[in-house]
């Protein structure tokens, strides 16, 4: 078991995100909140000691997170909400912060560039 020198942000969608998903999905299916919340996104951020520091980091990085969340449902940036503001991010997502990341796996942690 190893402690990783990172903190985490857990991002969970709210109703406006679900409404957008149902608008851009090209199927007859109507997604429910339980469907899209079953696997929240977890983002590693530099190690911070309190939630205020995590929120400051989020305020600087929210657009990349917002884009990643939208891209998960629709890869076409023309379908994404504009402008992506921090206020809108807060309306679309709940965020939780965690100060400790513990690696229970064996072997090296892999990294892959997201495009």
Helix-strand layout with pairing:
Blueprint: E1 2-4, E2 6-13, H1 15-24, H2 33-37, E3 41-46, H3 51-71, H4 86-92, E4 93-98, E5 101-103
Antiparallel strand pairs: 1-5, 2-3, 2-4
Strand residue percentage: 15-25%
Total strand count, please?
A: 5
Total number of domains? 1
Shape, per Cα inertia axes: globular
Tell me the series of helices and strands, N- to C-terminal.
EEHHEHHEE
Give the averaged pLDDT, no decimals: 94
Q: Biggest β-sheet, characterized?
A: 3 strands, antiparallel
Task: Describe the structure in your own words.
With 115 residues, the chain is an alpha+beta fold. It has one domain (2-103). It has helices at 15-24, 33-37, 51-71, 86-92, and strands at residues 2-4, 6-13, 41-46, 93-98, 101-103.
Could you give a short description of this structure?
With 115 residues, the chain is α+β, with helices and mostly antiparallel strands.
Q: What keyword list fits this structure?
A:
115 residues, alpha+beta, 3-stranded antiparallel β-sheet, two-stranded antiparallel sheet, 4 helices
């Amino acid at each position: 078991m190893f402690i990783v020198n990172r903190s985490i942000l857990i991002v969970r969608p709210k109703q406006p995100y679900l409404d957008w998903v149902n608008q851009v999905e090209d199927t007859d299916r109507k997604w429910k909140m339980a469907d899209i919340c079953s696997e929240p996104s977890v983002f590693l951020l530099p190690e911070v000691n309190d939630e205020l520091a995590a929120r400051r980091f989020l305020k600087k990085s929210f657009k990349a997170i917002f884009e990643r969340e939208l891209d998960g449902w629709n890869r076409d940036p023309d379908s994404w909400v504009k402008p992506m503001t921090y206020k809108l991010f807060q309306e679309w997502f709940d965020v939780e912060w965690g100060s400790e990341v513990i690696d229970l796996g064996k072997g090296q942690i892999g990294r892959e560039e997201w495009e």
